[in-house]
């Protein structure tokens, strides 16, 4: 167990240093949660995609709002998994559990992550990555290949940077939902958890990547399993890495 230096006294949590192999079990735990109530999780996942897509189509501000709300929904999935493991039945309305408390903090987290992604995109452009989306309907595969010639390293840099930002903030929605942390405090703890468990997170994200490759093979039908498994696994990972320390042992009583 390890605690970051100068940690605030509340919430009383510690970060577990887990082995790299544990990352795969997080995804397995997510699948176990999905398998217990599969139809409910499929309904939650489809509803999430429909809501996010509908919001994204709002002119001008839609994509930004979708980015702001993403952590709110991820908090909802963690809360839904917690509710299920407590023995309760899930409902489609559980998709909005994250809106019931700390929603402003979660939206702030979404705004920060969106700004970071936009900043990475601008940085890639400054490094020479071509803008291919101004008139994509006019571009042929040959045009795309020519535009990317010698620029794939910038694409790899952007992908890696976004992945690191995502990993650093992966636990933040659950920390806000379950511990009432501020946005900065949740990001600090989430980043510390990533630094403490790089192997487990690397295995976890590799397992997610492989799962989605397999999910797309049967005409994408595997996404009905992959998406709920991913969403539920966020709670499993959080529970495994962040543990509430046991209460201090009572002081021994003086002999009579």
SSE map:
Blueprint: E1 14-15, H1 22-36, H2 38-56, H3 62-85, H4 103-126, H5 141-148, H6 152-168, H7 172-179, H8 183-196, H9 198-216, H10 223-241, E2 242-243
Antiparallel strand pairs: 1-2
Helix pairs in contact: 1-2, 1-9, 1-10, 2-3, 2-10, 3-4, 3-7, 3-10, 4-6, 7-8, 9-10
| Average predicted local confidence, pLDDT | 87
How much of the sequence lies in strands comes to under 5%
N/C terminus separation: 38 Å
Helix-strand pattern, N to C?
A: EHHHHHHHHHHE
How many domains, as an integer?
A: 1
Radius of gyration: 21 Å
> What's the total count of β strands?
2
Low-confidence runs of at least 5 consecutive residues: 2-11, 245-256
Structural class: mainly alpha
Mind summarizing the main beta sheet? 2 strands, antiparallel
Q: Order of strands side by side in the largest beta sheet?
A: 1-2
| Total DSSP helices | 10
Fraction of residues in helices?
55-70%
Which descriptor suits the 3D outline? Answer: globular
InterPro entries: BPSS1780-like
Transmembrane segments: 41-62, 106-133, 153-178, 190-213, 219-238
Keywords: Membrane, Transmembrane, Transmembrane helix
Protein name: Transmembrane protein
